[in-house]
Design a protein that fits this description.
Strand order of the largest sheet of chain A: 3-2-4-5-7-6-12
Helix content of chain A: 25-40%
Strand content of chain B: 5-15%
CATH class of the largest domain in chain A: Alpha Beta
Helix content of chain B: 40-55%
Largest sheet of chain A: 7 strands, mixed
Number of helices of chain B: 13
Order of helices and strands of chain B: EHHEHHHEHEEEHEHEHHHHH
Shape of chain B: globular
CATH topology of the largest domain in chain A: Rossmann fold
Bound molecules: thiamine diphosphate, magnesium ion
CATH class of the largest domain in chain B: Alpha Beta
Oligomer: heterodimer
Distance between the termini of chain A: 31 Å
CATH superfamily of the largest domain in chain A: Thiamin diphosphate (ThDP)-binding fold, Pyr/PP domains
Distance between the termini of chain B: 78 Å
Strand order of the largest sheet of chain B: 1-7-8-4-3-2
CATH architecture of the largest domain in chain A: 3-Layer(aba) Sandwich
Number of domains of chain B: 2
Structural class of chain B: alpha/beta
Number of strands of chain A: 14
Number of strands of chain B: 8
Shape of chain A: globular
CATH superfamily of the largest domain in chain B: Thiamin diphosphate (ThDP)-binding fold, Pyr/PP domains
Number of domains of chain A: 2
Structural class of chain A: alpha/beta
Largest sheet of chain B: 6 strands, parallel
CATH architecture of the largest domain in chain B: 3-Layer(aba) Sandwich
Largest interface: A-B, 37 and 43 residues
Number of helices of chain A: 10
């Protein structure tokens, strides 16, 4: 058992799978000797060798294509997009192939691959280093989108993502990579890829969020508690598919729901959750669903970052 | 068996690391001491600026910053060969090119200080802003070149790419477009040996990166990127060729990244110190100063005065940067569209109220 940060938990899960499944390889830009620009792969190349932890040429479309090619031949590649802002060249490969091979070949060729990417704002980074565009991917049929918000969930969800028979986009909220530590048992236990996590029980209101916003959501729940309001807090964790049953069950109890995300509002994951609540939870609701989001603007450079990214 | 194609890549160097002219061809710039001195001054200024920017970052007064240390000859060589009406499409560390074109140091600081207003810089208003998504600028430059060609304007586009970036499709696609359309374009590969932690040899087993241009049908050469004369002259020749309607050229400039990748990087994790120490022997400013001194064109007094001037100008730029007021929160909305859509107007109002209420 180790007391570790979220980014260390990512590393621990990668090491566990590299150790226990010879088909697992890690690949991407600077993931080798440098250990990744956020140290998510620190020490792995030294431990497992350069054939298992591979520094690739600088080309994201190529990385995605290689990953798909390897996965179809039975390997379990875990690729890194250095930042979510640089994932766009991968989109053609993800949407046209990773998401479709199983369906296209009636199950003959499959893509058990993972693409990891740090995402989100709040670290004073240059342009394209702070975006939250999970909704682009959540919209695509055929891939899972997973977002951990604590070290233990990062560990368990990443193990599950690597072992899952289908493509998984694993988005790591980099603002909370190192904000707190948690005891994580390195036992290879995975967590489910289609369930919300109820982080706090409450009776008056349901607060729903994921990724780095879970931190602010828990803080909001503390403030509400001081005012005598009991908030239930749910970490969605898998934004595709979304476990609506857990959210609806909670709203049945509380009658109120506020959903919080870092991303822009328009056509986003939050819209999907709100729409589901409108469809299936209307009779439980005592007040309209409220959405707390970023503005529908281009993520500003960091002088104005705090004005759109809650923290 | 018949050979249907073959290639060779020329390597061009005029000024040796010790400041002597080499080879029998001497480019015009080598005898134009006034021009050399003015370019030397920009190179030194760029370096003084660079050191200051790094120290601002280290003391929390600037965000992440990409250093140009060691790249001064490539950058100033490109900038000095271009005309005002040409267009430049940079990546993120080519300050030397941009200073030649009138971009202000305070604007570079604004950009890395997290303020979009830095990208609305002085200098040619048709130049492209800094471009972070690697290699995407290359096809923009090709597009600009296509517009010059279609409108029959005697202008050229110049773009840069790193050794790492040369692995990306966009770069090869720009070469291909330039070849297919015979575009007035010059593409400079700034091969500084490293793409963050990935060494040049891991990008490709090709002997040169220039030969990627040849594969696409463009004349392509390699130059000593620490030799101002070589970069300036070969870019100038390529620009003339482009202006004459003969198409694009690829120039691989061999230089070395003497700094960390950016201030967010720690190169000691992956790069041996000896390699850096050795590379310092080949750096561009030293040899140019030596050349000027060898030819009695530069003195210690002039050097001292230049250093004082640079320090003063850099300080003034830092002041200007630090005195710039924070952009208003409404700036997030006001440049999204020519006409703000109604839903954004509502968000803008909300953001402003929230900001006013602290
Ligand atoms: C598409 C894309 N992928 C990844 C990055 C992250 N990144 C920034 S600079 C860099 C290395 C670039 O190396 P090179 O092309 O050699 O240029 P240099 O920085 O050495 O001048 C990487 C991987 C990016 N900015 N854009
Ligand atoms: Mg490089």
């Amino acid at each position: 058992m180790a007391n570790i940060t979220l980014v260390e938990a990512v590393s621990l899960a990668l090491a566990y799978e590299l150790e226990n499944d010879k088909d697992v390889v890690v690949l991407g830009e600077d993931v080798g000797i440098n250990g990744g620009v956020f140290r998510a792969t620190a020490g792995l190349a030294q431990k497992f060798g350069e054939d298992r932890v591979i520094d690739t040429p600088l080309a994201e479309a190529m990385i995605a294509g290689l990953t798909i090619g390897m996965a179809t031949q039975g390997m379990r590649p875990v690729a890194e997009a250095q930042f979510m802002g640089f994932i766009y060249p991968m989109i053609e490969q993800i949407v046209c192939h990773a998401a479709r091979f199983r369906n296209r070949t009636r199950g003959r060729l499959t893509c058990p691959l993972v693409i990891r990417a740090p995402f989100g704002g709040g670290i004073h980074a240059p342009e394209h280093h702070s975006e939250s565009v999970e909704a682009i991917f959540a919209h695509i049929p055929g891939i899972r989108v997973v977002i951990p918000s604590s070290p233990s969930r990062a560990y368990g969800l990443l193990l599950a993502a690597i072992r899952d028979p289908d493509p998984v986009l694993f988005l790591e909220p980099k603002r909370i990579y190192r904000v707190n530590k948690e005891e994580v048992i390195d036992d290879g236990e995975e967590l489910p890829l289609d369930m919300c996590f109820e982080l706090r029980e409450g009776t008056d209101i349901t607060l729903v969020s994921w990724g780095s916003m879970v931190k602010e959501t828990l803080e909001a729940a503390d403030k509400l508690a001081q005012q005598g309001i009991s908030a239930e807090v749910i970490d969605v964790a898998t934004v595709s598919p979304i476990d609506m049953d857990t959210i609806l069950e909670s709203v049945k109890k509380t009658g109120r729901c506020v959903i919080i995300q870092e991303a822009a509002k328009h056509c986003s994951v939050i819209s999907e959750i709100a729409a589901n609540l409108a469809e299936d939870g209307l009779y439980s609701l005592m007040a309209p669903v409220k959405r707390v989001t970023g503005y529908d603007v281009i993520m500003p450079l960091f002088k104005l970052e705090k004005n759109t990214c809650l923290q | 068996m018949a050979t249907v194609a073959s290639f060779n890549v020329e390597y061009i160097q005029y000024l040796s690391p010790t400041g002597e002219l080499v080879g029998d061809k001497i480019p015009a710039i080598a005898k134009d001491y006034e021009q050399i001195k003015s370019l030397y001054e920009i190179m030194v200024m760029t370096r003084v600026f660079d050191a200051k920017a790094i120290s601002l970052q280290r003391t929390g007064k600037l965000g992440t910053y990409a250093s140009s240390l060691g790249h001064e000859a490539v950058h100033v060589g490109i900038g000095s060969a271009m005309k005002y009406e040409d267009v430049f499409a940079p990546m993120y560390r080519e300050y030397g090119v941009q200073f030649c074109r009138g971009v202000k140091m305070s604007e570079v600081l604004l950009y890395w200080g997290g303020d979009e207003r830095g990208s609305n810089f002085s200098g040619p208003p048709h130049d492209f802003p800094w471009c972070v998504p690697i290699a995407t600028q290359n096809t923009h430059a090709a597009g600009a070149a296509l517009s010059f060609k279609l409108r029959k304007e005697p202008r050229c586009a110049v773009t840069v790419i790193g050794d790492g970036g040369s692995s990306k499709g966009d770069f090869l696609e720009a070469i291909n477009a330039a070849s297919a359309f015979t575009l007035p374009l010059v593409m400079v590969i700034v091969n500084n040996g490293w793409a963050i932690s990935v060494p040049r040899k891991k990008q490709s087993s090709g002997q040169t990166l220039a030969q990627k241009g040849i594969a696409g049908g463009l004349p392509s050469i390699q130059v000593d990127g620490n030799d101002l004369f070589a970069v300036h002259n070969e870019v100038k020749v390529a620009l003339q060729r482009a202006r004459d309607g003969k198409g694009a050229t690829v120039i691989e400039a061999i230089t070395y990244r003497l700094s960390d990748h950016t201030t967010a990087d720690d190169a000691s994790r992956y790069r041996p110190d000896e390699e850096v120490e050795n590379a310092k022997k080949f750096e561009p400013i030293l040899r140019l100063r030596q050349y000027l001194m060898n030819n009695n064109q530069w003195s210690v007094q002039q050097e001292n005065k230049l250093m004082e001037d640079c320090a003063r100008k850099v300080e003034a730029a830092v002041k200007e940067y630090q005195n710039a007021p924070k952009p208003p929160v409404t700036d997030m909305f006001d440049y999204m569209f020519a006409k703000l859509p109604h839903d954004l107007a509502a968000q803008r109002k909300f953001a402003k109220e929230l900001d006013n209420n602290g």
